[in-house]
Design brief:
Layout (H helix, E strand, L loop, with lengths): L1 E5 L7 E4 L10 E10 L1 H6 L13 E2 L3 E9 L11 E4 L9 H4 L9 H4 L15 E4 L5 E3 L5 H4 L7 H10 L8 E5 L3 H13 L3 E6 L2 H9 L4 E4 L4 H8 L5 E6 L4 H9 L1 E9 L19 E3 L6 H12 L7 E5 L3 H9 L6 E5 L3
Parallel strand pairs: 9-10, 9-12, 10-11, 12-13, 13-14, 15-16
Antiparallel strand pairs: 1-2, 1-4, 3-5, 3-7, 3-16, 5-6, 6-8
Helix pairs in contact: 5-6
Bound molecules: nicotinamide-adenine-dinucleotide and zinc ion (2 copies).
One zinc ion (ZN) binds next to helix 2.
Length: 346
């Protein structure tokens, strides 16, 4: 089968021909209908060889949707032909954290060598993919797989982040979304659907700001050195009660802190490699900074249910597997609007 693999550290991913996998006991084979292109893959492909936590080659794709093609021994609860999306942050499945559905925070996965598809295990950018356990599958029924597949990360990660900030996002509050790409354009919509907050979006290009306004941001402003002052002005000097940084470089982190209100939640979601300094009287009193990771299994079911209710408009551009390297080039250049989605089976 055809697959998109990251094969050589520092090189672009390549379309290759590899044997199709067969499901072992407990595993499910999916015929992939859609695979999302996440900016984290670009971060992954810039890790130097000595720090790469798993061997290459790696089939990319940690956002996957497919139809069940075959069941390994002992699998029940799904049937051949079912349409599903894949929950990606696989945990051990046995500890109390996993039992609560929060496998994204399983304390044992790394030690046991359990890695998400596309981030250490073979991913979704292939004609077929293996899923290790039926609990990782969320049925999507008749949802379009192209618009459903980004829910598994570009939807789930901001949903998890927004849920953490819900107590702060009361009527009259302001939430800021920095970076309105794949994750950010869904973060805006999740904030609108789940909170009464005023939503301010920041990005570096007018195209992205237009998308932000189109999906519900009340204000969309350029992300530059004046952005924090603009947010303060928009909020009568108070600042924002929640700031979600989907870029994560030093400059956006500093900007996030500079626009935060007293007792605000600042969440650094982006893998830009930046950091913020926190110290008494150097940041607003009571402000917290967290770096959330992905989301829980129940949260993916929530996001899927929200999508089914029609409140999410997932913007996508589609590519064949042969053109997948081009999708990464365009994402790297900031040219993708919403989420790029690969169609490995045409
Ligand atoms: P994306 O490329 O689709 O979106 C990033 C957006 O940020 C683009 O619209 C870009 O124009 C904008 N941007 C770039 N520099 C900016 C700046 N200085 N100020 C404001 N906006 C700026 O990427 P994505 O796939 O949505 O991912 C967003 C980030 O989240 C990436 O760093 C990714 O690695 C990370 N991520 C983290 C998690 C997690 O669990 N923490 C999960 C998924 C993705
Ligand atoms: Zn991702
Ligand atoms: Zn666990």
């Amino acid at each position: 089968m055809k697959a998109l693999q990251y094969r050589t550290v520092g090189s672009a991913p390549e379309v290759v021909d590899i044997p199709a996998p067969e499901p072992g006991p407990g595993q499910i084979l999916l015929r992939v209908t859609a695979a999302g292109v996440c900016h984290s893959d670009i971060a992954l492909m810039s890790i130097p060889a000595e720090r790469l936590p798993f061997p290459l080659p790696l089939t990319l794709g940690h956002e996957g949707a497919g139809t069940v093609a075959a069941l390994g021994d002992g699998v029940s609860g799904v049937a051949v032909g079912d349409a599903v999306v894949v929950y990606g942050p696989w945990g051990c499945g046995a500890c109390p954290v996993c039992a609560s559905g929060r496998e994204n925070y399983c304390p044992h996965a790394a030690r046991l060598g359990i890695r998400p598809p596309g981030l250490g295990s073979p991913g979704a950018m292939a004609e077929y993919m293996l899923v290790d356990d039926v609990r990782h599958l969320v049925p999507i029924g008749d949802l379009d797989p192209v618009s459903a597949v980004p829910l598994t990360d570009a939807g789930l990660t901001p949903y998890h982040a927004v849920r953490r900030a819900l107590p702060k996002l009361v009527p009259g509050s302001t939430a800021v979304v920095i970076g309105t790409g794949g994750l950010g354009h869904l973060a805006i919509q999740l904030l609108r659907a789940l909170t009464p907050a005023r939503v301010v979006a920041l990005d570096v290009s007018e195209d992205k700001l237009e998308l932000a306004r189109g999906v519900g941001a009340h204000e969309a402003i350029l992300s530059d050195a004046d952005a924090a002052a603009s947010v303060r002005e928009l909020t009568g000097g108070l600042g924002a009660q929640a700031v979600f940084d989907f870029v994560g470089v030093d400059a956006t982190g500093a900007s996030a802190v500079a626009m935060a209100a007293l007792d605000a939640d600042v969440q650094l979601v982006g893998l830009g490699g930046g950091a913020v300094r926190v110290g008494f009287a150097q940041v607003p009193y009571g402000m917290s900074v967290t770096a959330p990771y992905w989301g829980s299994r129940t949260e993916l079911a929530d996001v899927t249910a929200l999508a089914r209710s029609g409140v999410l408009s997932v913007h996508t551009e589609t590519y064949s597997l042969d053109d997948a390297p081009l999708a990464y080039e365009r994402l790297h250049a900031g040219k993708v609007s919403g989420r790029a989605v690969i169609l490995p089976n045409g």
